[in-house]
TrEMBL record:
<dbReference type="GO" id="GO:0070181">
    <property type="term" value="F:small ribosomal subunit rRNA binding"/>
</dbReference>
<dbReference type="GO" id="GO:0006412">
    <property type="term" value="P:translation"/>
</dbReference>
<dbReference type="Pfam" id="PF01649">
    <property type="entry name" value="Ribosomal_S20p"/>
</dbReference>
<feature type="region of interest" description="Disordered">
    <location>
        <begin position="1"/>
        <end position="23"/>
    </location>
</feature>
<dbReference type="GO" id="GO:0003735">
    <property type="term" value="F:structural constituent of ribosome"/>
</dbReference>
<protein>
    <recommendedName>
        <fullName>Small ribosomal subunit protein bS20</fullName>
    </recommendedName>
</protein>
<dbReference type="GO" id="GO:0015935">
    <property type="term" value="C:small ribosomal subunit"/>
</dbReference>
<keyword id="KW-0694">RNA-binding</keyword>
<comment type="similarity">
    <text>Belongs to the bacterial ribosomal protein bS20 family.</text>
</comment>
<keyword id="KW-0689">Ribosomal protein</keyword>
<dbReference type="InterPro" id="IPR036510">
    <property type="entry name" value="Ribosomal_bS20_sf"/>
</dbReference>
<comment type="function">
    <text>Binds directly to 16S ribosomal RNA.</text>
</comment>
<keyword id="KW-0699">rRNA-binding</keyword>
<dbReference type="InterPro" id="IPR002583">
    <property type="entry name" value="Ribosomal_bS20"/>
</dbReference>
<keyword id="KW-0687">Ribonucleoprotein</keyword>
<dbReference type="GO" id="GO:0005829">
    <property type="term" value="C:cytosol"/>
</dbReference>
Length: 87
C-alpha cells in the first residue's frame, strides 16, 4: 500500500492511464482485425478502404507510445502486402 501522498497519487494516475492505454490498444486490435476480415472476404477495394482507416489508428497509437513505431510500421507493411497479393 502507498504510504505517502505522492505514492497514492501515482497509484491513482496509473489506474487511469492503464484504462486509457487499454482502450487504445483494444481499438488498435479491432482495426487490424477489420482489415484482416476484409482481406479474407477477397474484396480488394473494400480492404484498401479499411486499411486506410486502420493506418490512421495504428499511427495514432504509435505516436502516443502505446506501441513501438517499428511495430506500427510492421503492422502496416504486412497488411498492405496482404492486400496487394489479392487477385
Amino acid at each position: 500500500m502507498a504510504n505517502t501522498a505522492q505514492a497514492r497519487k501515482r497509484a491513482r494516475q496509473s489506474v487511469v492511464r492503464n484504462q486509457h492505454n487499454s482502450s487504445l490498444r483494444s481499438m488498435l486490435r479491432t482495426a487490424i482485425k477489420r482489415v484482416r476480415t476484409a482481406i479474407e472476404s477477397g474484396d480488394k477495394a473494400a480492404a484498401s478502404a479499411v486499411l486506410q482507416k486502420a493506418t490512421s489508428v495504428i499511427d495514432s497509437v504509435a505516436d502516443k507510445n502505446i506501441i513501438h513505431k517499428n511495430k506500427a510500421a510492421r503492422h502496416k507493411s504486412r497488411l498492405s502486402a496482404a492486400i496487394k497479393s489479392l487477385a
